[in-house]
Amino acid sequence: MTVIPESHRDILEKKGFAHVATIGPGGEPQSHPVWYGWDGEALLISATPAKQRIQNLRRFPRIAVSIQDPDDPYRYLEIRGPVEIEPDPRHAFIDSLAKKYSGVGRYEYDPPGTERLIVRIIPEHTTSQ
Amino acid sequence: MTVIPESHRDILEKKGFAHVATIGPGGEPQSHPVWYGWDGEALLISATPAKQRIQNLRRFPRIAVSIQDPDDPYRYLEIRGPVEIEPDPRHAFIDSLAKKYSGVGRYEYDPPGTERLIVRIIPEHTTSQ
């Protein structure tokens, strides 16, 4: 169903950080760490529409993310593939990430009225170690 | 001298991991974590010539790396810029990384005769949190 190697699937359930690589307006790579979720088929990250990574992905909808095992930094999983950007209208997804990472089931750092998006990363190729 | 914000310079001396974003042969981003060093002006990473990241950088010599503070994953520094690729003829640089990360002053995982390169990343733009 997916290309995730069995040996590294555990990382997808852990509280690691996904370093997301996107391509900026000048064609240059950009990278930064974010929370992630895994729904069994796609890696999911959250963003607001104004974020540079969303602008980058609307222009060039391919991404790579590398995630180290938080329990052993010498293990990592990289996922590359196309992305789909969807709304997160009731913030259910960002709230689920807050629950996963902080234990609090509501993400409280967005000003009122903030729009949230879900970036679905479809695994097409992986590398791992 | 550099664009590294004073508030995040400490990360450059720590034993973190640099997630390096390069651009692959199909124009797609690629990402993976590596050791790094800092010489006061440039971020340095090591690689063998056969590595995909070296082939990527010879084609398109710009990079982004994001590094989380190993003591606080919610702090990070991203460095973007052009790269210069130099030889590491006596392996002094890879050995210095082995010393920094493992305490052992010699990197022992290369087969005899392995060629090592140094990728110098010139900070041109940073983001941090």
Describe what this molecule looks like in 3D.
The structure is a homodimer of 129-residue chains. Chain A is of the alpha+beta class and 129 residues long. Chain A has a single domain, classed as Pnp Oxidase, Chain A (Roll), CATH 2.30.110. Chain A has three helices and eight strands; from the N terminus they run H-E-E-E-E-H-E-E-H-E-E. In chain A, strands 1, 2, 3, 4, 5, 6, 7 and 8 form an eight-stranded antiparallel sheet that branches. In chain A, strand 3 and strand 4 form a beta hairpin. The longest helix of chain A is centred in the last third of the chain and has 11 residues. Chain A is globular and about 40 Å long. The model of chain A has no long low-confidence stretch (mean pLDDT 96). At the A-B interface, strand 1, strand 2, strand 5 and strand 6 of A face strand 1, strand 2, strand 5 and strand 6 of B.
Supply the key terms.
homodimer; about 130 residues; alpha+beta; Pnp Oxidase, Chain A; 8-stranded antiparallel β-sheet; 3 helices; globular
- Largest Cβ-defined interface: A-B, 25 and 25 residues
CATH architecture heading of chain A: Roll
CATH topology of chain A: Pnp Oxidase, Chain A
Q: Which structural category do the helix and sheet elements of chain A fall into? A: alpha+beta
Q: How many structural domains can be distinguished in the coordinates of chain A?
A: 1
**DSSP summary, beta strand count of chain A:** 8
CATH class division of chain A? Mainly Beta
Radius of gyration of chain A: 14 Å
Following the backbone from N to C, one meets helices and strands of chain A in this order, namely HEEEEHEEHEE
Low-confidence stretches of chain A: none
| Average pLDDT metric of chain A | 96
Q: What is the rounded distance between the termini of chain A?
A: 21 Å
Helix content of chain A: 10-25%
Main sheet summary of chain A: 8 strands, antiparallel
Strand content of chain A: 35-45%
Number of helices of chain A: 3
